[in-house]
Amino acid sequence: MNPPDHRPDAPWEAELDRQLKRLPDRRAPATLASRVLAAIEVRARLPWYRRTWWQWPPAIQGLSLLVASVLLGGLTWLGLHTGRGDLAAALVARSIACLAPLAPLWTALNTLAQAALLLVKQPTLLSWTLLAAFIGALYLSCVGFGTVLYRVILPRRNS
Amino acid sequence: MTDPIQFETFMRNYQDMVFTTAWRLLGNSSDAEDVAQEVFLKAYERFTELSVSPTAGGWLKTVARNMSLNHLTRYRARWRFFSEFETDDAGEPGRDFAASLPAPDTHSAQMEAGDQREILEAALQQLPPTQRVPVVLYHFENLSYEEIAAQLKCSLGKVKTDIHRGREALRRRLVANPEAALS
Questions:
Q1: ipTM above 0.85, yes or no
Q2: What is the pLDDT along chain B (183 residues), one digit of tens a residue?
Q3: Which residues of chain B neighbour A29 with C-beta distances below 8 Å?
Q4: Degrees (nearest 5) of the Cα angle B85, B89, B95?
Q5: A38 CA to chain B: closest CA distance, Å?
Q6: List of chain B residues whose C-beta atoms are within 8 Å of the C-beta of residue A27
């Protein structure tokens, strides 16, 4: 059943509407303007790289667009040419050489990825249960951490 | 580059309207001031366009309304998630939306409730948020029932019922004050 339409048809409702609309604006606190101006001043003092992209100097905006375009173009070019020719192989080899200090991290990630792949390839109830428990534990720890922060930090901020 | 003096003049012209919009929705001076500050900071970023726009007032009002509603939604979500949410109010109809929001800041209004307008404003602020917010959106922001339901993400029926209850509550409170009684 649709609820009744409560448009202000009754005379008192129309009168109420009129009176409400006639209510004057409330005077803003005297501190409002000074707060806004102070916040603007703080923002103005921020270095350009800590502001939003829209507020960067035009020259840096242009430069950032150029760099992004070059990067995107380069990646596209690499994507199109990977697997063909010696250049791609040489680039990959050079990149690997540059990333050599990160080898232990790569090994650990690789092992984890292989373990995950094994789980996906040979799914058992136990493996899925363990995975679900792991994800659940991560989620609960995030919630718990958030709750502790909320209860510990917020009352201090409010007090 | 924005001229600070020009912006200050602009802000002083509109600050009462922006603050009032937020205050009526939030029912709290401190939160309303925070929201008004955010509105003007946003306006500052677009001041080049706003300073010459004939609809700057409308833009500010819409932003103030949306930011106030966002503030209410954020507060409600946090409150429900983390705090000791009251569970024994299930029997009270229409208490699911912002019933858990902060109590209206009616003290100052009550102190000054000398004339008809003050009494009406105070009565409005004494409404529970679940009624005050849709009443304000309907009567001050001129939104339709459908738009209010969409903004508050609740059913059309609930919006109509809450506005009706809000109006009835206002009438009851105003009848108790003969100076401001409706004809």
A1: no
A2: 567 788 999 999 999 999 999 999 999 899 999 999 999 999 998 898 898 889 999 999 999 999 999 998 887 655 554 443 333 333 344 444 444 444 555 555 444 445 678 888 889 999 998 999 999 999 999 999 999 999 888 899 999 999 999 999 998 888 776 555 554
A3: 19, 29, 33
A4: 90
A5: 10
A6: 16, 19
B116-126 and B156-175 are packed helices; what angle lies between their axes, rounded to 10 degrees?
140
Report residue A101's pLDDT band, with 50, 70 and 90 as the boundaries: confident
Residue type for position A100: A
Tell me the pTM: 0.61
Q: How far apart are CA A32 and CA B19, in angstroms?
A: 9
Residues from chain B contacting residue A19 (CB–CB below 8 Å): 116-117, 120, 182
**Exposure string (b/e) for B50-85, b if CB count within 10 Å is 16 or more?**
beeeeebeebbbebbbebbbebbeebbeeeeeeeee
Residue A50: DSSP 8-state: G
CA distance A70 to chain B (A): 30
Identify all chain A residues contacting B121, using CB atoms and an 8 Å cutoff. Answer: 23, 26
**B84 in A contact zone (CB under 8 Å):** no
For residue A38, which of B40, B14, B64, B31 has the smallest C-alpha distance? B40
Contacts of B120 (CB under 8 A, 6+ apart): A19, A20, A23, B170, B174, B180
Cα of B104 to nearest chain A Cα, Å: 15
